[in-house]
Amino acid sequence: MRTNLNLPLTKTLTALLGAVVLLTSACKKEKAALPTDAGNSPSKLSTNAIGVTGPKGVCYVEVNNNDIRNVGNYTLSTGEQLFDIAIIFAANINYDTGTQKAVLYFNPQVTNVLNNKTTYIQSLQAKGIKVLLSILGNHQGAGISNFPTQAAANDFAQQLSNAVTTYGLDGIDFDDEYADYGTNGTGQPNASSFVYLVTALRNLMPTKIISFYFYGPAASRLSYNGVTVGSQVNYSWNAIYGTYSVPNVPGLTAANLGPAAIDIQSTSSSTAASLATQTVNNNYGIYLYYNLPNTDSHTYLTSVSNALYGKPTVYTGTSTTGVTFYQDINYGGTVTSAIPKGTYTLAQLQAYGFVDNWASSVKIPTGWTVTMYSNDNSTGTSWTRTANTPNFTTLSPNANDVVTSVKIQ
Fold first, then answer.
1. How many C-alpha atoms does 328 have within 13 Å on its Cβ side?
2. 23, 114, 323, 341, 385 from 403: Cα distances, Å
């Protein structure tokens, strides 16, 4: 599936896995009581993003590789935004072996998006798009399905709520993958964990969006002590790209479910259109997109929007010429947005997706000159380049993973 924060796993793996269901044995139920379902139904919450007639478009963006702002570059021909919800993929649930607690973790690319919220988050929100943060495991034994107590679930819910407040987010998305339950002596999935977590988070965020990527052990642990996950979350959607499958989440109506899921870069346009038609014909309220690239994809997306809304998609972004830095040699890994001419401190570079001590290669437009510096504010060791450079380790001295500020002329 989507790229894990530390390892190069992608959401594409879900498509390869097909309909394999990850089920494990439930541990002994917790005895702490939960409140019964009350008048806090997600359908009553004011969470509509844009309000265009028809299913809402939800789009996951792998921010390790792509710029989330591209979600805002697509509209219908009548002016409405194509995507209602953009999801930052992804933050992790790490496990602190000292405290034996789950800890919210952001990798450098996610940190860049969150710390530069004006650039990445608020620019989308200004267009009416809701921005969520996706949460999943990180191979350390901690996940949404194995909190051992209600207090432990409450503690992690508080961390999530704090992140939503700090970064001005519109909500949290849960994805039960890559936890590797049992690692570091952690427990296996249990019956109460996910219910405890979403209940605590809903109490902390009564008007924010909570969504569930229907996958993993949590998908079979959606009710405990009379409380359903569907009474606490707003939306849930199918996790297998290129397929149509209705998530079985008690408490959610068709308007809150997304049975169709596509990978923009691997699902054929004919399949995407067929899934969109089924969504409309069966009156479901969500259509899920994944893997939106930085390049113009409006022709492909038109095949979907014509079926969903009877309108083509328009790309409103601009092709900006500029310098692009890459995380890996030979122009691999995460890439920055195109950076125009100017003198940039580290903070200014971060707005383009640049990370300190990170770059390993660079592409430079013909006739441009790039001077790279090892320290901030154009200080320290410098390297001047006038052409594409695929491997910073070949420079003298070695410039790999040491560039902090840049001058582009």
1. 8
2. 45, 22, 14, 17, 13
Which two tokens mark 141? 């034994």
- Angle at the Cα of 204 (from 199 to 208), degrees rounded to 5? 90
Residues 340-385 have pLDDT tens digits of 888 999 988 987 889 999 999 999 999 999 999 999 999 999 999 9
The contacts of residue 347 (CB under 8 Å, 6+ apart) are none
Does 25 have pLDDT greater than 50? no
**Model confidence over 211-266: pLDDT tens digits?**
999 999 999 999 999 999 999 999 999 999 999 999 999 999 999 999 999 999 99
Residue 296 to residue 351: CA distance in whole angstroms: 21
Domains in the chain, start-ordered, CATH in brackets? 56-315 (3.20.20.80), 324-408 (2.60.20.10)
Compute the distance between CA of residue 225 and CA of residue 251 in angstroms, rounded to an integer.
14
Among candidate residues 393, 395, 394, 339, the one with its CA nearest the CA of residue 363: 339
Angle between helices 298-309 and 269-281 in degrees, nearest 10: 20
Is the CB of residue 11 less than 8 Å from the CB of residue 90? Answer: no
Q: Which residues are catalytic?
A: 177
Q: Are 353 and 384 in contact (CB under 8 A)?
A: no
Among 342, 340, 408, 348, which residue's Cα sits nearest to residue 376? 348
pTM confidence score = 0.75
The full 3-state SS of the chain, as one line of letters, equals CCCCCCCCCCCHHHHHHCCCCCCCCCECCCCCCCCCCCCCCHHHCCCCCCCCCCCEEEEEEECCCCCHHHHHHEEECCCCECCCEEEEEEEEEEEECCCCEEEEECCHHHHHHHHCHHHHCHHHHCCCCEEEEEEEECCCCCCCCCCCCHHHHHHHHHHHHHHHHHHCCCEEEEECCCCCCCHHHCCCCECCHHHHHHHHHHHHCCCCEEEEEECCHHHHCCEECCEEHHHCCCEEEECCCCEECCCCCCCCCHHHEECEEEECCCCCHHHHHHHHHHHHHCCCCEEEEECCCCCCCHHHHHHHHHHHHCCCEEECCCCCCCEEEEEEHHHEEEECCCECCEEECHHHHHCCCCCCCCCCEEECCCCCCEEEEEECCCEEEEEEECCCECCHHHCCCCCCCCCCEEEEC
